[in-house]
């Protein structure tokens, strides 16, 4: 078991589960060593690793660039996908039950991936994003087909305040018949952020209700910012 696998195995998953249920996100600090972060950034310029490049401003997604990885994924990314997924299944299934959605996620990642492929979703959605000064990402949800997993993660590969200024991670929560709530996060280099893909349950006086959530990145004032996004469901062919 390598260092990253050990760090993930040692993470306080019961308290992480509580945070996800209470807030819709949780930060696990120091998962990726600094040298591995730097390696992932250097690999941005290796075209053989990727299936597609997106220039954000072309689609009005923001200002910056990202690349979708091709299968087979680099071993580090595949290991994280396979190791983190089963830790999140109890949360995901609990959310579906609370909202009375007839959906039960399988216990292991390979079984979930088979569900995606049965629905013609077989393109990898793992991506690496790069921003420079002025870069930003508009609020959005990462949905690529009928099959989706309600939690995803992002790995932060640069140090805020040192490598870049601005560029905060932003979540918005839309409660029915109420104003939106903004959540601004600033994880450090090597940190892992778990957050809801599109909605989560919140307990009210008459049971649970659904709140929709989106995420994005505020404008960078200076420097460069790279992140690695790991989404568990695949995209339509």
Strand order of the biggest β-sheet: 1-12-8-16-6-4-2
- Broad shape: globular
Subunit organisation of the chains: single chain
Mean pLDDT equals 96
Terminal-residue CA separation: 34 Å
Estimated radius of gyration = 17 Å
Provide key terms for this protein:
single chain; 237 residues; 17 strands; seven-stranded antiparallel beta sheet; six-stranded antiparallel beta sheet; Jelly Rolls; alpha+beta
Describe this structure in words.
The chain has 237 residues and is of the alpha+beta class. The chain has one domain (3-232): Sandwich (Jelly Rolls). 26% of the residues lie in helices and 36% in strands. It has 5 helices and 17 strands. The chain has helices spanning 3-10, 13-23, 34-42, 75-98, 109-118; strands spanning 25-28, 50-55, 62-63, 65-69, 121-123, 127-131, 136-140, 151-156, 164-166, 169-174, 180-185, 192-196, 199-204, 207-217, 220-223, 225-230, 235-236. It starts with a helix and ends with a strand.
């Amino acid at each position: 078991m390598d260092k990253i696998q050990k760090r993930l195995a040692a993470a306080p998953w019961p308290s992480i589960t509580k945070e996800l249920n209470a807030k819709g996100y949780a930060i696990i600090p120091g998962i990726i060593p600094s040298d591995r972060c730097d390696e992932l950034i250097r690999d941005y310029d290796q075209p053989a690793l990727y299936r597609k490049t997106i220039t954000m401003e072309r689609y009005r997604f923001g200002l910056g660039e990202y690349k979708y990885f091709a299968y087979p994924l680099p071993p580090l990314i595949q290991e994280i996908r396979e190791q983190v997924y089963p830790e999140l299944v109890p949360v995901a299934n609990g959310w579906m039950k609370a909202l009375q959605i007839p959906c039960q996620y399988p216990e292991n990642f390979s079984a979930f991936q088979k569900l995606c492929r049965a629905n013609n979703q077989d393109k990898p959605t793992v991506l690496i994003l790069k921003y420079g000064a002025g870069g930003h990402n508009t609020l959005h949800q990462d949905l690529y087909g009928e099959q989706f997993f309600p939690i995803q993660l992002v790995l932060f590969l640069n140090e805020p305040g040192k490598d870049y200024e601005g560029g905060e991670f932003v979540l918005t929560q839309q409660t029915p018949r109420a104003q939106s709530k903004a959540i601004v996060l600033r994880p450090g280099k090597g940190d892992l952020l778990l957050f809801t893909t599109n909605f989560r349950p919140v307990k009210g006086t008459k049971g649970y209700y659904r709140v929709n959530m989106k995420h994005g990145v505020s404008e960078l004032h200076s420097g460069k910012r790279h992140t690695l996004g790991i989404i568990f469901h695949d995209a339509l062919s």
